[in-house]
């Protein structure tokens, strides 16, 4: 049986070294995220997941390595260049505009994608996340943590990105909120979105991602499809057990 053809690479990271001051955090990190793929970047707290995401988004410039997005090497480039090329980043701390309403937060972020895409609009956000529509007039700073997380993801989508980076979207949230975010991400996956998801919670990723990269102490230590990882108890115990 002929294996299915690989989709084109949406994001290619190679040989990424990142330092904070004199301390090296990432050591030669590399992986390929393909178009339409949801990939989980897994690892314990402090493994280097957030630094990898920040490096891709332009917030932690690497000392070495390449980050190819839209055919261009953006390693070390300012964050606005990655955004113009279709990258959207939802950081771990969400960073909503607290004094603006939910609807204001969405409208502030509205723009077409790099090729003029206009799939995500405020009405479509309301359709995908009816909870946010009910809160449309509330100041974002008065939302719960889970509501802010949903707003942060929705705000990123308003930029009609080609690639969505999510840093720890389930962290610290109630199970019912985690389930709602999981439903949203499954809908994005089924619609063909390209997503890189950094998580400690492997179980959250099992029903979402098709592939996984495990990072430990700043090194990529394992890559596999998600089903292989699900059944590989030795790898899970070594790198993901808390």
TrEMBL record:
SMART domains: AAA (SM00382). Residues 11-242 form the ABC transporter domain. Pfam families: ABC_tran (PF00005). The keyword Translocase does not apply. One of its GO terms (biological process) is L-amino acid transport. Keywords: Amino-acid transport, ATP-binding, Nucleotide-binding, Transport. The keyword ATP-binding applies. InterPro entries: AAA+_ATPase, ABC_transporter-like_ATP-bd, ABC_transporter-like_CS, BCAA_Transport_ATP-bd_LivF, P-loop_NTPase. Belongs to the ABC transporter superfamily. PANTHER family: ABC TRANSPORTER ATP-BINDING PROTEIN, HIGH-AFFINITY BRANCHED-CHAIN AMINO ACID TRANSPORT ATP-BINDING PROTEIN LIVF. This is ABC transporter. It comes from Acidisphaera rubrifaciens HS-AP3.
């Amino acid at each position: 049986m002929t294996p299915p053809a690989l989709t084109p690479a949406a994001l290619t990271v190679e040989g990424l070294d990142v330092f904070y001051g004199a301390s090296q955090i990432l050591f030669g990190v590399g992986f390929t995220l393909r178009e339409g793929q949801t990939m989980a970047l897994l690892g314990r707290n402090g493994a280097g997941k957030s630094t990898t995401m920040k490096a891709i988004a332009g917030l932690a410039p690497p000392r070495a390595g390449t980050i190819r997005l839209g055919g261009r090497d953006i390693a070390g480039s300012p964050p606005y260049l990655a955004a113009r090329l279709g990258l959207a980043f939802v950081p771990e701390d969400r960073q909503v505009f607290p004094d603006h309403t939910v609807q204001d937060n969405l409208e502030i972020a509205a723009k077409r994608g790099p090729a003029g895409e206009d799939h995500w609009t405020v009405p479509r956000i309301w359709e995908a996340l009816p909870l946010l529509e009910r809160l449309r007039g509330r100041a974002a700073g008065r939302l719960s943590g889970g509501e802010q997380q949903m707003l942060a993801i929705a705000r990123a989508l308003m930029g009609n990105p080609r690639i969505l980076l999510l840093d720890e979207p389930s962290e610290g949230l109630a199970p019912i909120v985690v389930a709602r975010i999981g439903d949203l991400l499954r809908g994005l996956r089924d619609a063909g979105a390209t997503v890189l998801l950094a998580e400690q919670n492997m179980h959250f990723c099992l029903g979402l991602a098709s592939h996984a990269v495990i990072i430990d102490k700043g090194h990529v230590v394992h890559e596999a499809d998600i089903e292989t990882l699900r059944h590989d108890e030795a790898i899970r115990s070594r790198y993901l057990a808390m």
